Amino acid sequence: MREVLDDLLQWWRAGESVGVGTVVGTFRSAPRPPGAAMLVGPDGTAVGSVSGGCVEGAVYERATQLRDGDGAAGLQRYGVSDDDAFTVGLTCGGIIDIFTEQVSRTTFPEFGELADSIRADEPVALATVIEGPAGSAGRHLVIWPDRTAGSVGSARADDAITDDARGLLAAGRTATLTYGPKGQRRGEGLQVFVSSFAPAPRMLVFGAIDFAAAVARMGSFLGYRVTVCDARPVFATGRRFPDADEVVVDWPHRYLQSQIDAGAIDPRTVICVLTHDPKFDVPVLALALPLDVAYVGAMGSRATHDDRIQRLQEAGVAEADLARLSSPIGLDLGARTPEETAISIAAEIIARRWDGGGRPLTETSGAIHREPVAAPIPLPVNRKGSARTA
Fold first, then answer.
1. Is residue 256 pLDDT above 60, yes or no?
2. Given phi > 0 = left and psi -120 to 50 = alpha, else beta, which region is 277?
3. Are 193 and 323 contained in the same domain?
4. Which domain of life is it from (predicted)?
5. Omega of the bond prior to 328 within 30 degrees of 0, cis?
6. Pair 98, 117 in one domain
7. What pLDDT does 291 receive?
8. Helix residue ranges, H only, the chain
């Protein structure tokens, strides 16, 4: 939704009705991820994208109907055979589930608060009923870490969804959740799509060296909020690291401790220690390795790695925590330049996130993507790409 937020907010504030189609589930190789959205504005303008091809046209028509008050919000599944895939836009024969609704001040009065939080980069989640008892589809519950707005129609369901959505929000994940009609966790009949708008995950780069500039550039490209930290002010400057969101002059371990104390480290955080100097990297790694973070990597030769492990053991770091250290940092790409090394580090971070093996895809078989962000919902499939409402 981020990519269409400004247009949707402008029309919402003007009191207009907008048709909105949102990807809520994918299977196999769909073009857009869950959360991608397309708008049909009051003048017929299309903003955003959910797929391309005939699927896009079908969603446009359905969103136009809902914008004009013709029909109720509902879930459609678009799926094609491999033979027909190219002509309808799902070029790998994928399946895509799209929820279409009307958004206006009447149908979604809480949208203004949601949009303000997203634009301010505040953590917030949107829970939308995409399938449920009659009349419930399209109800919204907006969830912040400390409050909620709206309702899905049941206080018990609101409470259950709020608890689960806050867990997803903390992890920066989007998912479809299933409950009983009144929010029973082991029930069926209520499908809720939770879209998390969490602040960008953090990348902490310790060591203001030439490789750090390339890593910061790559981290920014991948969507991280990048901090470069070094105790040497002559090297830690904004001019040397234009792609970093912030450059901090401090001892790495002291800065990391301040971020831990401030609650600014979460399970999505990645930490890259590039100093390969024991007086800098041992103290910060001793702090970093026990943390619940996505990745901790350290640069250095094989000899540097062996010496570093011994020093960390002497510092009391547990063997289980040492096993989490990616060192020497990066995947074996044969990288030599700072830019190539940054790509190898980014590749390892991505592989760690999605449990990838780092092997060429030509050497593997089976599904390319191991874990869908939001699982497809079991609906009948219309094989020619036309809409079918649940």
1. yes
2. beta
3. no
4. Bacteria
5. yes
6. no
7. 97
8. 5-13, 53-67, 85-88, 111-119, 155-171, 210-221, 252-261, 278-288, 302-314, 319-322, 338-354
Q: Which residues face 18 on adjacent strands?
A: 103
| Per-residue pLDDT tens over the stretch 154-207 | 999 999 999 999 988 877 788 999 999 888 887 788 999 999 998 888 999 999
pLDDT value for 33? 79
| Displacement of CA 103 from its chain's centroid (Å) | 23
**Residue 160 included in any domain:** yes
SS3 at position 227: strand
Residue 82 included in any domain: yes
For residues 149 and 60, state if they share a domain: no
Please give the tally of structural domains in the chain: 3
Distance CA 49, CA 31 (A): 10
Measure the CA–CA gap between 389 and 71, rounded to whole angstroms. 10
How far is 52 from 179, CA to CA, in rounded Å?
Answer: 32
Residue 101 lies in domain: 1-106
CA dist., res. 273 & res. 366, Å (int)? 35
| Mean pLDDT over the full length of the chain | 87
pLDDT, position 238: 94
Radius of gyration of the chain (CA): 24
Res. 269 pLDDT band, cuts 50 70 90: very high
In this predicted structure, the answer to whether residue 82 has a pLDDT above a threshold of 80 is: no
Cα pseudo-dihedral 351, 355, 359, 361, rounded to 10: -100
For residues 126 and 99, state if they share a domain: no
Residue type for position 178: T
> What pLDDT digit, counting tens, does each position of 135-157 carry?
899 999 999 999 999 999 999 99
Strands 246-249 and 190-197: unpaired
Planar angle of CA 287, 290, 293, nearest 5 degrees: 95
Do residues 54 and 27 share a domain? Answer: yes
